[in-house]
């Protein structure tokens, strides 16, 4: 049975999954999981990229020690927009900044003085958001110009990590589509935008197609880990593109939800949708594993609850899903709502207090207990997902009949059920490790073991279990939704 290494690196943790394929079914095993958090120092948030690299090598070593010393290839997917800068000798110039860096908003403000948000959307199909690569780059240009002066190559995060393993420089198509620097519907950088911002076009490494073999692991890696060379494959570098590839979407009336720190909701399309409604409602277009696009909206996910847990743990209160579920069940429904995507929740010092202040300012009952806060978060998230799906229907002219949820956040069964209730749609949840499965799919296609994405989805359906959720209590939800809409429109 052939095996591949699928590295799925998220904005809160990373993991190595060993995916085996026997010609009919996939079999997946978690080899190693590690924490990944931005580091705040000298007024900036950074990613500790060398620690990520070290943890990835540790994961490979553990896999080899378990007897998996014959691996066909490896692929890496990560979150979007972030990047590293290399010198002309190939050295990493600095730790990459995190998209949560506060200076990004100032970079966006400066860029929008030169080119409007509407024109950026028309040219790239990507929603204007401070996290985007374009604004990070311009922030660096304003605050740390000497860094850009020394930079020779920009590599997006999955390709930066692949470079550390293979020595090959390129930017894969799906991850490139998150930057707001890619020309809409094309596989090339938008030169006019780069010219306006006075950023050299050759700074960005060339774009390479998804599902291509870019090289092999370096001799130094092979010697260190005592392994044979392993092919390094450009899977869909963006974790959402991987996740969508693994979801068993059956027709064009199905919506995908890739659920983690963020929740991305959308539908596959052949070409970017850049209408005025898509722009006004904050939708974006990003590439898929098969060279097409996803019309989607980026939404807050489990970040809200993750950050509340940080505060509770700081206060000495232990928590786990079972405890949270019990507290959730004991709390009253529809008591208080927040707009999950309000900017105040992006990177607050204390998420619990921020939620309480929001409810106080909007003249709602202030959630005091952990259960009330958890219910406020989860119900608000589900309501927002309903709001997004209603607008997807208007943009595509198609009625959504089913929602496919994948990713780590579907372990929270309350979120899945609330999403079914809020949207009045059937929810099919699974597979949990959708991103790493999609990563492996990309490798199997590149290796010629699976023909295409359609065949891959059939294999996934027969290989991994899913759970179905059906909506309930619709009258109560309809009334509550009308209250919620007040906070987002």
Fold and architecture overview:
The protein has helices at residues 49-65, 103-111, 117-124, 133-143, 145-150, 157-166, 173-176, 191-196, 219-225, 239-246, 276-280, 303-314, 321-330, 351-361, 370-396, 413-423, 434-446, 453-463, 474-485; strands at residues 2-9, 13-21, 26-35, 39-41, 44-46, 73-78, 83-86, 153-156, 171-172, 207-208, 212-216, 231-234, 254-259, 262-269, 284-287, 293-300, 402-406, 426-429, 467-469. With 489 residues, the protein is α/β, with parallel strands linked by helices. The radius of gyration is 22 Å and the shape is globular.
Please summarize what this structure is.
The protein is of the alpha/beta class. The chain has 19 helices and 19 strands. It has helices at 49-65, 103-111, 117-124, 133-143, 145-150, 157-166, 173-176, 191-196, 219-225, 239-246, 276-280, 303-314, 321-330, 351-361, 370-396, 413-423, 434-446, 453-463, 474-485; strands at 2-9, 13-21, 26-35, 39-41, 44-46, 73-78, 83-86, 153-156, 171-172, 207-208, 212-216, 231-234, 254-259, 262-269, 284-287, 293-300, 402-406, 426-429, 467-469.
């Amino acid at each position: 049975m052939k095996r591949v290494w699928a590295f799925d690196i998220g904005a809160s943790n990373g993991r190595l999954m060993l995916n085996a394929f026997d010609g009919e079914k996939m079999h997946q095993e978690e080899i190693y999981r590690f924490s990944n958090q931005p580091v705040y120092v000298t007024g900036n948030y950074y990613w500790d990229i060398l620690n990520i690299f070290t943890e990835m090598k540790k994961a490979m070593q553990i896999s080899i020690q378990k007897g998996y010393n014959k691996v066909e290839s490896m692929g890496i997917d990560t979150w979007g927009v972030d990047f590293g800068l290399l010198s002309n000798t190939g050295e990493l110039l600095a730790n990459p900044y995190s998209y949560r860096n506060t200076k990004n908003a100032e970079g966006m403000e400066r860029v929008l003085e030169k080119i409007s948000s509407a024109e950026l959307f028309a040219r790239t199909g990507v929603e204007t958001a401070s996290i985007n690569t374009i604004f990070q780059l311009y922030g660096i240009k304003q605050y740390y110009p000497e860094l850009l002066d020394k930079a020779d190559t920009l590599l997006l995060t999955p390709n930066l990590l692949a470079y550390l393993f293979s020595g090959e420089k390129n930017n894969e198509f799906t991850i490139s589509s998150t930057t707001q620097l890619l020309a809409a519907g094309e596989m090339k950088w938008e030169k006019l935008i780069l010219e306006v911002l006075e950023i050299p076009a050759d700074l960005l490494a060339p774009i390479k197609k998804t599902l291509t073999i870019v090289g092999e692991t370096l001799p130094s890696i092979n010697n260190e880990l005592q392994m044979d060379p392993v092919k390094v494959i450009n899977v869909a570098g963006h974790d959402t593109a991987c996740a969508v590839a693994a979801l068993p979407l059956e027709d064009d009336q199905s919506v995908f939800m890739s659920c983690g720190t963020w929740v991305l909701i959308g539908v596959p399309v052949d070409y970017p949708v850049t209408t005025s409604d898509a722009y006004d409602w904050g939708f974006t277009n990003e590439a898929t594993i098969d060279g097409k696009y996803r019309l989607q909206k980026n939404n807050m996910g489990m970040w809200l609850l993750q950050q509340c847990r940080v505060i509770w743990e700081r206060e000495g209160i232990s928590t786990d899903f079972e405890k949270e579920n019990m507290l959730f069940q004991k709390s009253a429904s529809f008591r208080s709502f927040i707009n999950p995507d309000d900017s105040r929740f992006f990177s607050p010092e204390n998420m619990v207090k921020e939620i309480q202040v929001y409810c106080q300012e909007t003249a709602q009952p202030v959630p005091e207990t952990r259960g009330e806060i958890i219910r406020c978060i989860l119900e608000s998230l589900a309501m927002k997902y309903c709001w997004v799906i209603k607008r997807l229907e208007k943009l595509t002219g198609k009625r959504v009949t089913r929602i496919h949820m994948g990713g780590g956040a579907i372990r929270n069964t309350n979120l899945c059920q609330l999403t079914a209730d809020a949207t009045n749609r059937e929810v099919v949840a699974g597979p949990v490790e959708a991103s790493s499965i999609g990563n492996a799919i990309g490798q199997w296609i590149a290796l010629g073991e699976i023909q295409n994405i359609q065949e891959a989805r059939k294999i996934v359906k027969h290989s991994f279990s899913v759970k179905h959720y059906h909506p309930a209590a619709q009258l109560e939800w309809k009334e509550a939704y009308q209250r919620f809409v007040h906070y987002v429109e």
